[in-house]
Design goal:
It is a single chain. By secondary structure, this protein is an alpha/beta fold. The chain has 12 helices and 14 strands. It has helices at 11-26, 48-58, 73-79, 85-94, 111-114, 128-137, 157-164, 203-209, 219-223, 255-264, 296-312, 330-339, and strands at 4-7, 31-33, 40-44, 67-69, 99-104, 119-123, 141-142, 170-173, 184-187, 194-197, 247-250, 272-276, 288-291, 317-321. Helix 1 (11-26) crosses helix 6. The chain starts with a strand and ends with a helix. Residues 219-226 have low confidence and may be disordered.
Amino acid sequence: MNTEVLSIHNSTLFEHALEKAVALLNLGHVVALPTETVYGLAADALNPTAIQTIYDTKRRPATNPLIVHIASRQMLNDCVGDWPERAEKFARSFWPGPLTLVLPKAACITNGITAGLDSVALRWPGHPFMQAAIRRLGRPVAAPSANLANQLSPTSAEHVLTQLNGRIPLIVDGGASNVGIESTVLDLCGKTPTVLRPGMIHLESLQAVDPETKNQVPLKENELKGSQEPQLSPGLHRKHYAPQARMKLLSWETSSNLESKVAALGAKLEKTCIICHDRIPSPDGFARVSVIPHDPEAYARALYGELFIADREEPDLILVESVPNTPSWHGVQDRLTRASTD
């Protein structure tokens, strides 16, 4: 299959790409579209065959549900079996944007989307092209990240092409994603709003809307579920968002301390890539040293891109400096922890 890449940097190109993308979606194909979080592998959410194509293309486990993207109140009403006042408050505060709400599903949402669960994960994306595609299609779109399962999520068209070239007919190039990691997922099916997957809308912001909101169970408890059980949300598998190279997350005090830790991990300096934000070592001797700003939003925007670059070096080890354990960093910390799991 030939994979076409279409830019949208002016109105004419935007319309051409929109027409092509929607035509393919109508035919049941999957296409890679830009969103503000990461690039999504989109398909008509009401077409079971297209949904299965997402799983086949990504090699995604059937236990991992998909997020359904909407762009109108009517689509929202069609997708959920119940829309409580609590959900309305969160939607008013954060939609369109990088927040996914888990709610009881409507009859039109198939088990293929939800991994057999009675709930559906819904998001109203903020990216103008994604909104336009959903509205032109006239139906909700299922769109997990446009990558192979458990591998690095793409924040540019180039990243999508690296993994899915020849597997999909179209990638729409909307430039770099401006959030950079996947959406926060909030479960509203129980008595208490619960964060299932942290993101850049963090717990303190959610508690400003509803003080009862609580965080997800700790990662170690979550791992006990095992990969064969249906997951309540995307992104809950033990290993996820990972580069091809071995990756470790740790802290160091000095360059010599860092070198000792690299040696203890059985890696050579010249085959080790460093990603840091605070303790910046000399680049001498390492395959690559990159610095991401010590700011959670800027860090999130840069993270996957830096990991893609490091992976291209084909290193023995990617060593990432630990990030702060504070609410604004929890989304980034979650991605790094899962990516560095053996």
